[in-house]
Amino acid sequence: MKRITTIILLLFITVSTLAQNNVTPESTELYVNLEKVTPGEQGSAPSDAIVLFDGTSLDAWQSKVFSVGGSMRDMAGRIPGFTAEGNGGPAEWEIRNGELVVKPGTGYIETKQGFGDVQLHIEWLAPSAEGKSGQGYSNSGVFFMGLYEVQILNSYENPTYQNGQAASVYKQHIPLVNASKPVDTWQTYDIIFMAPKFSDKGTLVSPARITVFHNGVLVQNNVELLGPTVYIGTPHYVAHSDKLPLALQDHSDPMRFRNIWIREL
Known about the structure:
The chain is mainly beta. It has helices spanning 2-20, 72-78; strands spanning 50-53, 61-63, 94-96, 99-101, 109-115, 118-125, 139-144, 148-153, 186-194, 197-198, 204-206, 209-214, 217-224, 244-248, 256-264. The chain has one domain (50-264): Exo-inulinase, domain 1 (Jelly Rolls), CATH 2.60.120. The protein has two helices and 15 strands.
């Protein structure tokens, strides 16, 4: 009872003090002109999004200038070659029934436009493949800035190393849970990517960070990246441009994609 009385007394003193200083509720109310965005329906793009694939065209994409993977030494050597506006040839993947399908052996594709901090929505389907397992069972990946991968893989009753399963930040962060659907089922990623920041001298000011919702479930909660994701070796940062292309991986599996859009933050 004494504690309640003390709280009431403090509230009374606070209100009295605010009144004496002519502080009103309106003094803490902010009015600003917010940009209006019309939300999309059922995962379709909001009004301020850049549509990367709507089922009709690959105009936003090109063949990737450099492949991704290998040792950190390889990666560091490639980074200076990346540009905000890529110089690759036409994307060689196929459009079938409004879906973007990997054509195995043609290589990665990347956006012609470069991006930094973004919100990405992408839908993907891992096709069934009898006799395959682990990393060999319907594998792809989405690479922010061509360097930072969120894994795409059939992870429904398909054991593999957890820092390489679907929705992992490849070999850096295991997802909080496995939210995978069965093969031949459409799945969604909604991802917030915050690009790393470098000083004028090339030193790291702030690392990249990623938040991932897999099929509507939070699986990566603003995790900090150690550097570009690599298959072999220890990741570390090498200074690069503020904006670089988004890339999708050809891992020799006919993965399918649809409804890809991105918002610059």
